[in-house]
Amino acid sequence: MSSEKIAENARLLAGEDVDVSSNRVPPPEANFMKDPSKLKAFQAVTYSAAANEGQTTRTPKNNAFWNQEMGKIQYFISKTLLVGMYLVFGLFRYLQYECNKMKLRIWNVIYNPSNTPQLIRQDVTKLDKIPRRLAAILEMKSVGSVGGGVKGLMNDGSEVACWTVSAGIKHLILYDFDGILKKNVLEFKEEIKEKLSRYFGPSNVPKFALRIPHKNKVHFSNDDSHKVSLEISLLSNRDGRQTIVDLTKTMAELTKSKELQLQDITMRLMDKELTQLVGPEPDLLLYFGPSLDLQGFPPWHLRLTEFHWEQDNDQVAYSIFIRGLHKYSNCKINVGK
C-alpha cells in the first residue's frame, strides 16, 4: 500500500476532510442535469413533491389549537387529582394525629403512678417477664419549650431512672446524641438523688452508679459503698459506629505488628471487646419521640433488642415506659444456634 493511500485512510479515520474530487465517479443525476428539457421536467416533479410535502406538514397546524386545549384540560385534571389526594391525605393524617393524642391522654390517666414506687411495682408484677437491661433514647428539647434545655434533659433522665429502679430493673442505658448527660454527670447524679428522695423518701434513697464506658469511669451515689440497686450507663454517638471503627483500626495495627494473629479475630472477640467498650446489649429500647429514630445508637447492641415507641408522642411519660414493658412481656424472642 502506498504512503499516500495510508495517509488518506488515516485522515478518514481521524475525521478530517479529504479532497477526492479527482477520483470520484459522478452519479447518474449529474449527467441527467446536462439536458435542459430533462432538467425542466425534473424541476416540475420536485416542485410538485415539495408542494405535497408542505401541505402534509401544514395539516397538523390546523389541529394545534385543539391539541393545546387538550393539554390544558389534562393539566387541569392532573392538578385537581393531586390537590385532592393531598387534601385527603392531610385530613387522614390530622384525624390520625388527634386519635393518637387522645389515646396518649387516656393512657396517661390510666397509668399515673404519682411518684409512688408501690404502684409501679404493682404494674410490673402483673407481667410475665421484665427486661434485665433497659435502654432509653432521650432528646434535648429547645430551651424555649416546656421541659427543654439541659435541665429538662436531666429531669427526663432522672424520671426514667426512678421508674427503672421501682420496676426492679438493675441496668439502665441512657442515650443522648450529643452526650449532654456525660458532660454534666455530676449535676445529673444530684438530680437523680433528689428525684429518688421524692419517690422513696430521704432516708431510703436507693444507691446507684453512673458509668461512662468511653472514659472507663464510674460515679457512685455514695462513696462509701459500691453495692448499688441500679447501674446507669451514659452513651452518646461517640459510642456507636466510631467505636467500631476505632476497634477495627486497633486490631489492624496489632495484626500488622504481629501482636495479634489474623485467625484470632472472630465474632466472639469483637463481641467481647465491644461489650467492654460500650456495655452489654439491652433487652428493650424505649424511644420517647413521635417516630422511631435511633440517632446513632450503637448498632452492635441492637441485634436482639425489642423496640417500643408511640406514634405522635413527644414527651417522656410513664405510660410509654409501662407499655414498653407490657410489649416486652408479650414478645417471643427466638435465638438461633
TrEMBL record:
Per the record, the pathway is: Protein modification; protein glycosylation
Residues in a coiled coil are none
Superkingdom? Eukaryota
The places in or outside the cell where this protein is found are: Endoplasmic reticulum membrane
- UniProt-listed PANTHER family: DEHYDRODOLICHYL DIPHOSPHATE SYNTHASE COMPLEX SUBUNIT NUS1
The lineage is: Eukaryota, Fungi, Dikarya, Ascomycota, Saccharomycotina
Reaction(s) catalysed (UniProt annotation)? n isopentenyl diphosphate + (2E,6E)-farnesyl diphosphate = a di-trans,poly-cis-polyprenyl diphosphate + n diphosphate
State its Enzyme Commission number(s).
2.5.1.87
Q: What is this protein called?
A: ditrans,polycis-polyprenyl diphosphate synthase [(2E,6E)-farnesyldiphosphate specific]
Record family assignment: Belongs to the UPP synthase family.
The record's keywords, sorted A to Z, are:
Endoplasmic reticulum, Magnesium, Membrane, Transferase, Transmembrane, Transmembrane helix
The cofactors required by this protein are: Mg(2+)
Q: Which GO terms describe its molecular function?
A: ditrans,polycis-polyprenyl diphosphate synthase [(2E,6E)-farnesyl diphosphate specific] activity
Is Endoplasmic reticulum among the key words of this record? yes
